[in-house]
């Protein structure tokens, strides 16, 4: 493995991808700020989109949503919602929802650790995130196992390493850290290893406040400066159908108050927690997302919220969730229509239900990815490494999926169609039966013309066999091992360690903060 | 393996997919006639497309194309082209090309063995073909080996089995049959095992005439009846850059005379046999395709031709062809724009350069597939099973790729967005914290709501491990083995064997027909 890594490292240097001296003529793709070049693909007529929106408003008006947090019910009631004290059901008038859609920002400036990593979240922009929320981690060398802090840190290093992964996220749950202190470790890893836009868990106000304080310390911001911009995000999952639990409602409130980003995502599995039709699942998703973002706007008009969609289907024989299915793609395309109807930035979900990084995993992941791309999703979460419908994150799959994301990123770049690119003279230069390898047109461009693969191997069968007949996943092991071995965290991130460790030491002495449920 | 197949077969029967009595309530998707539901995605402006077309006309007018077949040069000359007798270069005026684009049919009715398998080839329709032209065949049980007639026959059975594969094709080269008799075996296998639209090699007039005669015998047609409709197709590859060899030129002439379909496909690998830019490779492709289809229209105005595109790139370090790359996807999207400019049905090419059916193979194949889908290709060749850039066809990859094709086919079906699908009542029926499994809305639809996977396994990690931790490729082995074991050729196809065998026996006695080169 060491030999492989060394050889691959030499090859990478030859390719000039490591940014060393003398490589100015090599390819330096910029994947940091992607604009989606594809026309959004609709599955519903405009009338049908309006009908889904209207039905979602009826769901909120006539049926309501159960809100478990008293403070949230009070906020809703004060804003004009009808709250049933016996059932905790909250019914929202469409005027409240319309006002919320008006005050929610259509564009969010996400401030990262350095300005070069800042992101604009709005319709038309496209960001990718690695798989998140998995209890387990897996790789070909160590097998599948419960996630640890060491794994989480390695995943943060890999997310930092690949420019096409635009934000950090809670890839795996570090189960070796007590849950009263886990959020310190998770936040510390993000802030000291990376300068990308970080995630903070919404597991109760004490943990959220700890997270905000760590961000203020790391970024050197006052409370007011912190509130003035979006410095982190959280994901709020409603409990479909029609329920908002205590930590999630509290998270919406806490993040809105602090001007931080809530990604409000119903997880609507058609046939299980949502109606079996794509239109029905999206109607429930839309109603729940609207309820959540309305709460955020009640707390603070203009609070940054991302419309969330993660609707797929289940296997009706076993109840098992499925991803990358035709229904998942369709639900994502429909969600894009609903998001555009609101005008808000929005998130989709990628992923696969496969148990190993095989052809099924790749196909499902790419179908989900294309659903997101063709739906115009602003944030595509779980786009790399996610297996088992989110029960594990795979190191090698993260690498092979990054290759797919880089391919999409390459498609964002314009294709020159000027006279020089059309190249009549180049065609004239090469006679029938000849080749273009040494044509002037080729020589002027060959270093930078084509995408250079991360893990794909295009050698012929003989050479591939001589190199050990490795699958893409086996080769991916060399890629992530090398990325970790060569990893140097950004100096600005490293510099935050001292102040963060001081804070963590104090809070640990104080007993930390248990998650609220 | 036998046990697995039996278990899987039982599961398939339970799922009701085998069409047995009592399964009327199960899902019966119809993949036979697909209309592409996606908006075509452009990479060039309309002006740039016009400039590429104009430059291609300049290439043909000013530079010309080398035509190795004297008869073809004569035909071109008689139609007004300038032929240089010293260099065999043919220069075509744009008037000739414009006339050809006018007379070429915009819609081709492809007559298969039964009307239920007929296809309409025109912009907006979408057909998929398995990988074609490979010298080798591979599967997990027997490994990679030179193709044999037995393999070819098995592949024809599998192509016939999966409705989402719309035409037959020369998947692999049966190298165990002498090349003077090989075309008899290939044609016989297609006509006796399948009722789908068949392929005939263009390897010289004697072989082509044999193929046409076998088709007339199998279909019970007179020569005039045969000529009146398109009963088969061939693929014409130009020798890029700017050369048309003897068998290919002869093929265009023979197929046009007989009213059969020529798919005229330059194989333009940017940086090698074509300019290194996507626009340049497409300009050369366009010029060569126009030259070929002009020859067909000179021979017989109205002869059915399919505009062919198979432009990708090479690795500039090794010269190795690559597929499913960003450049391949872009070239396909641009080719779609050029094809729509001509108004003709057109073919694209899928595939992967991977050496084994792994994550790379799946990702590359699906990227190439999406290129074809979003470019609006009428025929997508090499869409299933193609490995090593066409040097082998894999049985298990054919199955995993068919799952991807079926997913795309499912996306062609409209998504209901009516009030009943939106399902306000269903949402009202299920209380917060409940589930939709037993809702009336679900019960009325659960048998047919969702795509049922062919090879994907959505079981959880524990069950998957207990079932032997099989990869998708390993499970695919059971799928293709079962499909072959259960295969029953269409009665109409079986019925052709007698008359074909009589013909083959006579022609074999006469010495067969060697390929022309």
From TrEMBL, chains A, B:
The keyword Nucleotidyltransferase does not apply. Pfam families: MTTB (PF06253). One of its GO terms (biological process) is methylation. InterPro entries: MttB-like_sf, MTTB_MeTrfase. Residues 1-34 are annotated as: Disordered. GO terms for molecular function: methyltransferase activity. Gene3D superfamilies: Trimethylamine methyltransferase-like. Its EC number is 2.1.1.-. Belongs to the trimethylamine methyltransferase family. This is Methyltransferase. It comes from Mesorhizobium newzealandense.
């Amino acid at each position: 493995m060491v030999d492989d890594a060394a050889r691959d490292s030499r090859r990478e240097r030859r390719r000039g991808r490591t940014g060393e001296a003398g490589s100015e003529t090599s390819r330096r793709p910029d994947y940091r700020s992607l604009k989606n070049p594809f026309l959004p693909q609709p599955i519903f007529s405009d009338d049908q989109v309006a009908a889904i929106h209207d039905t979602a408003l009826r769901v909120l008006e006539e049926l309501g949503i159960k809100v478990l947090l008293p403070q949230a019910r009070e906020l809703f009631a004060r804003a004009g919602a009808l709250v049933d004290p016996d059932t905790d059901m909250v019914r929202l008038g469409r005027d409240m929802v319309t006002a919320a859609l008006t005050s929610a920002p259509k564009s969010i400036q996400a401030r990262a650790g350095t300005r070069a990593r800042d992101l604009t979240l709005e319709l038309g922009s496209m960001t990718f995130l690695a798989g998140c929320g998995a209890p387990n981690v897996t790789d070909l060398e160590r097998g599948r196992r419960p996630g640890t802090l060491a794994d989480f840190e390695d995943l943060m290093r890999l997310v930092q390493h690949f420019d096409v992964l635009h934000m950090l996220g809670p890839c795996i749950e570090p189960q070796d850290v007590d849950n009263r202190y886990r959020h310190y470790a998770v936040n510390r890893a993000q802030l000291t290893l990376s300068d990308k836009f970080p995630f903070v868990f919404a597991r109760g106000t004490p943990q959220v406040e700890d997270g905000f304080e760590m961000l203020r310390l790391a970024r050197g911001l006052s409370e007011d400066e912190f509130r003035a911009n979006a410095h982190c995000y959280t994901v709020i999952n409603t409990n479909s159908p029609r329920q908002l639990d205590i930590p999630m409602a509290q998270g919406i409130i806490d993040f809105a108050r602090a001007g931080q980003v809530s990604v409000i995502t119903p997880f609507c599995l058609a046939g299980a927690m949502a109606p079996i039709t794509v239109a029905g699942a999206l109607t429930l998703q839309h109603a729940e997302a609207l309820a959540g973002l309305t709460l955020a706007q009640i707390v603070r008009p203009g609070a940054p919220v991302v419309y969330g969609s993660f609707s797929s289907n289940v296997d009706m024989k076993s109840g098992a969730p499925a991803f990358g299915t035709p229904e998942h793609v369709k639900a994502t395309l429909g969600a894009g229509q609903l998001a555009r109807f609101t005008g808000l930035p929005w998130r989709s979900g990628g992923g696969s239900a496969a148990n190993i990084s095989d052809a099924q995993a790749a196909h499902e992941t790419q179908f989900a990815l294309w659903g997101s791309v063709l739906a115009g999703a602003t944030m595509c979460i779980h786009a790399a490494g996610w297996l088992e419908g989110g029960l594990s994150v795979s190191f090698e799959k993260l690498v092979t999926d990054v290759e797919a994301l880089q391919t999409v990123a390459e498609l964002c770049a314009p294709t020159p169609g000027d006279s020089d690119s059309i190249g009549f003279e180049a065609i004239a230069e090469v006679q029938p039966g000849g080749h273009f390898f040494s044509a002037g047109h080729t020589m002027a461009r060959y270093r930078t013309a084509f995408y250079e693969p991360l893990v794909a191997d295009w050698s012929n069968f003989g050479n591939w066999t001589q190199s050990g007949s490795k699958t893409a996943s086996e080769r991916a092991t060399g890629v992530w091992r090398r990325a970790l071995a060569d990893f140097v965290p950004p100096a600005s991130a490293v510099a935050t360690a001292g102040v963060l460790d001081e804070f963590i030491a104090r809070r640990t002495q104080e007993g930390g903060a248990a998650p609220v449920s």
